[in-house]
Amino acid sequence: MYNKKFIFLISASFLFLVNCSYTSFQTAISENQTIKDWFLSTKYGVVEASITWPSDNDSYPSLLIIQSSDENNQKNTKELLSLIGYPIIAMSISLPGIGNSTGPHDFGGKKSVESIKKAIHYLSEINNNGNKSIFIYANGFGANAAIIATRKVSDVKLLILENGLFEPRKVIKKSPQNLKIRLKDFLSDKNYKANFRSSLYEIEKNEIPIIIIRNIRGKDYELEQHNEIIKFLKLKNKKYKILDISEKNKSLFFQKLIIKKRIVPIIEKYFKKINSGKILNG
Q1: What's the pTM?
Q2: Residue pair 119/94 in contact by the 8 Å Cβ criterion
Q3: Strand intervals (E) in 143-209
Q4: In the CATH scheme, what is the code of domain 4-276?
Q5: How far apart are the first and last CA of the chain?
Q6: What is residue 238's three-state secondary structure?
Q7: Could you give the CA distance from residue 160 to residue 262 in angstroms, rounded to a whole number?
Q8: Domain residue extents for the chain
């Protein structure tokens, strides 16, 4: 495990490169760890992607972090870097319209779905002869796209969804003003129905166990959307667990890194349950 000073220096250097002219690069930060930053190509444009992995050529599970919000884009880069030194392949992508990914934002629509599929395919390819266990963490509208993108994908073992948003028309009334303006433009587009579908009505097609992280002190519209997905999961008799947390909404500066603290333990617990023959149940 690397010390905190080393991680800080690497993080600062990486963030500097990411926020400059933005060119793709790959570098070995030590003989044990490699970082790569590049663009995945899709039929809709390019997707900003970053990945870090142990350099010993051993087989490791993968964690895909889906960035679906501009305000969290830099924070999620730090989340990725916090996993340096862990026995895991950690990858992060920015959905359309976020960071340097080709826009516009489609709020978990078909372009986002395609972006996630590309990332899953990439992780499966680099682990062609090894551990193909992929775990996905998504929040906001990224959760909607993640459910649709992972249908009939055997390599994805678990979806971890936090404060998922699945129905733009229901969210718009209670959302913050900046989000409300963008959603209004998106919903008024004549191609809206062709570009977006709610995963709630397709959840029966997805067989992957889901962990729902709910902030009981979150925004009203987030809690309402949480209740909606639980209703559909129960209706379709799907495998899921609920993890309740209690956190005040804070500015980006005060937000703590949560992937290492909250998501890694979930993955570790998953492997323990698999080894003991237990599965998730509603």
Answers
A1: 0.86
A2: no
A3: 156-164
A4: 3.40.50.1820
A5: 36
A6: coil
A7: 10
A8: 4-276
